[in-house]
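Quick illustration for those who missed Monday's session on complexes.
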Amino acid sequence: MKDLRHLSVEDITNLVISSNEKKFRVAQIQDWIWKKNVGSIDEMSNLSKGFREKLNQEYVINKVKVDHEQFSTDGTVKSRFQLHDGHFIEGVLIPTEKRMTACVSSQVGCSLSCKFCATGYIDRKRNVTFDEIYDQVSLINEQAIKHFDKPLTNIVFMGMGEPLLNFNHVFKSLEFINADYGMGMSPRRVTVSTAGIAKMITKMADVNPNVRLALSLHAASEKKRNEIMPINETNNLDALIEALDYYFKKTKNPVTFEYILFSNFNDSTADADDLIKICRRIPSKVNIIEYNPISNAQFVKPDEQRTDAFMDYLGQHNINARLRRSRGKDIDAACGQLANVNH
Ligand code: SF4
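Prediction with iron/sulfur cluster bound:
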């Protein structure tokens, strides 16, 4: 049966009219499926019983379910979500003093096989649909209100999968996240993080959804990036910088470079010089991220001294860089650790 949420407003309008229902039912249905985010047609209590029965004969609502929750000592909540066809994805609520951030997944598994990422060791099974992305955001928002008494302020597409390889569903989910009958959240509070698909960055520039763009750089020379991110072999740094240049010219939005520090791999002064060169070519800021070990990979987190030296060096060269301490490490909810194999 078809998911009711896959109908457009026009489809719902036609359905309402052909069922001899009043036109205001359209807004009521929209409100139930998005703002109230119900999991069944039976919950739509202001529709007549007869209309609900009719809808039940043809439609379902395949709402994502929270299958398992883990709570970190730092407040981070990791959820394993079950999709209607039995697949699992993960999402994380990251509470800080100023923000309530939802980190959501865009694919079941990932095809890009980054060497430092737990998801990269799981084959991509399928894309996450726009309504499933919306559900993750809505369910994490419920957790934020329940545990912290505050609604979500930000959304990051940094969970499982490469969002720009699920372009249509990711940006369609934002329509509902932004809509008044949905979450009512501004796109400026949404960050899409990509491992670097040049032609999709160009497409994003043309569409200009007004979200923030982050690029997972993690190594600033072609040789080193090829070693840890196989996608760099077909989308190398030159191609990415060209796409980012186009993106900036079109949108006037700077990019954020994400750079995980790996001990004795990308944390030397020479590595910092490579990073500085890239930053000089593109209006940007840099998030330096603490590495969180995963069982499959051999990387090690640098010690504090080396991390501080790297940060100081960037500072001396006037690079706008911030060190991001990882959250939720004790429950494998930190950056690169999502793989839903840990329960
Ligand atoms: S870092 Fe992102 S793109 Fe790379 S394997 Fe992990 S989920 Fe995929």
